[in-house]
Design brief:
Length: 543
C-alpha cells in the first residue's frame, strides 16, 4: 500500500477578473505522506491557503474556483465528489485547524458540544460515549480541568486554549490528514511553542499526515519533515527541511530565510547617554477597582505594578512580554491615553504623569505612537496626506507646509510622494505601517512608542519595517520604546530589554547580556519558546 495520503496534481485555481493576477494557484503538484508534516511556506497572496481550502472544497465559489488539476485522496478525486460525499470527508477523514479559533468556533455554543457535533455526524456513538470521548480529547490536548472546559463558551477561554479545542475537534475521529492553516500566528511565543509541540506529539501518536500552512521559517525548523515554498501561486521549491533551511535553491526561498529575525543580538558599540530622555518610576495601573463587567464585579487586575525604567537619548528599549503582561498598558500610561494610579513619568526633564489630556496636547509632539494594526489606526475616509499632516497643522504649521513635509516623509519611509492623494485601503499591510511611521515622525518627536508594529506582517515585510525603524532612529537620533512578545524582534532593533510578566519588570539589561545569560526563569522560558531557536542563532551586525 502506498504511503501517500494526498496527491495534489497540477492544481490551478482561478481568481475573479478584477484581481491583480489571473490565478491564485497555478499548476501546483505535491504529495503528502503518512506520518509526515509538510509545511507550505509563503507570504500573504502566495496561494498557500487557497490551495489548502481547495482540498476540502471551501473556496468562495463561483468567484474563486478550481479550473484544472486533481486532488486525490484514498483513491478518489475530491474535486469530482458530490456534496454529500465531500461533507462525509470534511471533519472525518480530513480535518482543518483554522488560523483564528474565535472566528471558527460558534460563540453561542459550549465548546464540548462543538466537539460532540463532529462525533455525532461521523460516528454512531451514543451521547454518553461521545461525552467520554470529548473529555478524553480535551485531556489529550493538555487542557486543564476538562470537566470545566467541556461546559465553557469560547469567550471564557484564552487564545491558546481555544486553539487546543480546535485541535481536539480535528482529532475527534482520528482523520488521515489534518490541514493546519497558520494555527499559531496570533499566539504568544510560549503558547505557540506549546501548540507546535502538541501538534507534533499528536501527529506521531496517531500517525496522521499534517499539511501545515505558515509564513514563519522558525515554525518550519521546529516541526516540518518537508517544506514546500510558494510564491504568486506557484511552487518554487520543495525538499527536506534541513536542505531548504540550510541550502535553499530558489532566490525567493533565500530571501525568506534571510528575513527571519536572528536570535543573536547585535553588539552595543556606544555607551548610553548620561541623561535619560524618559524616566518611569514606580508607575502603577489597576483596572476594575470600582466593579467590572458580566459577573466580574469587584475583581481588580493590577496591570502595572511599580514599574521603573529609563530610555536614553537616541537609544531603544524593548519591552517584552506575553499578552496580559501589562506592556501595552504601560505604553498607554506613558503617552497619556491612560491615567496611571501612581508613580512618575518624566520626559526630557518634565513631569508628564497626572496631566490632563488638554495639558498633554502641547507635549504630545514630543512622543508619538506606532500602533499594532495600521489599518485600524488610520482613518479610512481621509487621504494619506491629511492623515500625516494633521499633527503638524494642530501644532500650528500651515497646511501647505504640512503637506510638503508629508511628501518628504513618505519618501523617507520608502513610499512615493504621490501617495498623499490615496486612501489607506489602497495600500498593503506593510505600506500602511510605513504610513503610520510617517505620521508619528510628522511632529518631529523625541520618543516613539512602537506597540507590536510588525506582529501582523509577513516575515519579509517585517524585516523591511524593522530595518526602517532602526535606520530612522539612528538617522534622526530618536529614542524608541519597542513593545513586542517576540525576543527575535527585540534582538533585531533594541540594545536593551525589559522583560515584563504579570505587571512587573522581572529582568532588565542589555540585549546581549539577557540573551547570553538570562537570570529570571520567565526570560529563560521566552528564549526557549522561540520556534526553531537552535537554527535561528546566527550572527547579526553591530549597531
Amino acid at each position: 500500500m502506498s504511503d501517500v495520503v494526498l496527491t495534489i496534481d497540477n492544481l490551478t485555481v482561478a481568481l475573479p477578473s478584477w484581481s491583480d493576477r489571473r490565478n491564485a494557484v497555478e499548476g501546483v503538484s505535491l504529495d503528502i505522506h503518512r506520518n509526515e508534516i509538510l509545511c507550505v511556506v509563503g507570504e500573504s497572496g502566495s496561494g498557500k491557503s487557497v490551495m489548502a481550502k481547495s482540498v476540502l472544497r471551501l473556496l468562495p465559489a463561483p468567484h474563486v474556483r478550481v479550473t484544472g488539476g486533481r486532488i486525490l485522496f484514498e483513491g478518489k478525486d475530491l474535486l469530482t465528489l458530490s456534496e454529500p460525499e465531500i461533507r462525509a470527508i470534511r471533519g472525518g477523514r480530513i480535518a482543518m485547524i483554522f488560523q483564528e479559533p474565535m472566528v471558527a468556533l460558534n460563540a453561542l455554543m459550549k465548546v464540548g458540544r462543538q466537539i460532540d457535533e463532529v462525533l455525532e455526524v461521523h460516528t454512531k456513538m451514543r451521547a454518553a460515549e461521545r461525552r467520554t470521548r470529548v473529555l478524553e480529547l480535551l485531556a489529550d490536548v493538555h487542557l486543564p480541568e476538562p470537566e470545566r472546559i467541556i461546559d465553557s463558551y469560547p469567550h471564557e477561554l484564552s487564545g491558546g486554549q481555544r486553539q487546543r479545542v480546535m485541535i481536539a475537534m480535528a482529532l475527534a475521529v482520528e482523520p488521515a490528514l489534518i490541514i493546519a492553516d497558520e494555527p499559531t500566528t496570533a499566539l504568544d511565543v510560549t503558547t505557540q511553542a506549546q501548540i507546535l509541540h502538541l501538534i507534533k506529539e499528536l501527529q506521531r501518536t496517531h500517525g496522521t499526515a499534517v499539511l501545515f500552512i505558515t509564513h514563519d521559517f522558525g515554525v518550519v525548523a521546529e516541526i516540518a519533515d518537508r517544506v514546500a515554498v510558494m510564491r504568486h501561486g506557484e511552487l518554487v521549491e520543495l525538499g527536506q527541511t534541513s536542505d531548504v533551511l540550510n541550502t535553499p535553491q530558489a532566490d525567493y526561498t533565500k530571501a525568506l530565510v534571510a528575513a527571519v529575525p536572528s536570535m543573536t543580538p547585535r553588539a552595543r558599540t556606544s555607551a548610553p547617554a548620561s541623561a535619560p530622555l524618559l524616566i518611569v518610576r514606580n508607575v502603577e495601573k489597576t483596572y476594575g477597582r470600582h466593579g467590572g463587567w458580566f459577573g466580574s464585579r469587584g475583581r481588580t487586575v493590577k496591570a502595572v505594578q511599580k514599574v521603573s525604567l529609563d530610555i536614553g537619548r537616541g537609544r531603544s528599549l524593548a519591552l517584552v512580554g506575553e499578552s496580559g503582561s501589562g506592556k501595552s498598558t504601560l505604553a498607554r500610561c506613558i503617552i497619556g491615553l491612560e491615567e496611571s494610579d501612581g508613580g512618575e513619568i518624566i520626559l526630557d526633564g518634565e513631569q508628564i504623569s497626572g496631566l490632563t489630556r488638554n495639558e498633554m496636547r502641547t507635549l504630545r509632539r514630543h512622543l508619538q505612537m506606532v500602533f499594532q494594526d495600521p489599518f485600524a489606526s488610520l482613518n479610512p475616509r481621509h487621504r494619506i496626506g491629511d492623515i500625516i499632516a494633521l499633527g503638524p497643522t494642530i501644532q500650528g504649521v500651515s497646511k501647505e507646509q504640512a503637506w510638503k513635509e508629508a511628501r518628504e516623509l513618505l519618501m523617507l519611509v520608502g513610499l512615493k510622494p504621490e501617495a498623499v492623494d490615496r486612501y489607506p485601503h489602497e495600500f498593503s499591510g506593510g505600506q500602511r505601517q510605513r504610513i503610520g511611521i510617517a505620521r508619528a515622525l510628522a511632529v518631529k518627536p523625541k520618543l516613539i512608542i512602537a506597540d507590536e508594529p510588525v506582529s501582523a506582517l509577513d516575515v519579509s515585510v517585517q524585516k523591511q519595517v524593522l530595518e526602517l525603524l532602526d535606520k530612522l532612529r539612528r538617522t534622526l537620533d530618536l529614542s524608541m520604546l519597542f513593545i513586542t512578545h517576540d525576543l527575535r524582534v527585540a534582538a533585531t532593533v533594541c540594545e536593551e530589554i525589559a522583560v515584563m510578566q504579570h505587571g512587573l519588570i522581572v529582568e532588565q539589561g542589555s540585549t546581549a547580556d539577557i540573551f547570553s545569560n538570562p537570570q529570571h526563569a520567565y526570560t529563560h522560558a521566552l528564549l526557549q519558546a522561540v520556534p526553531g531557536v537552535a537554527w535561528q542563532t546566527r550572527s547579526a551586525p553591530s549597531i
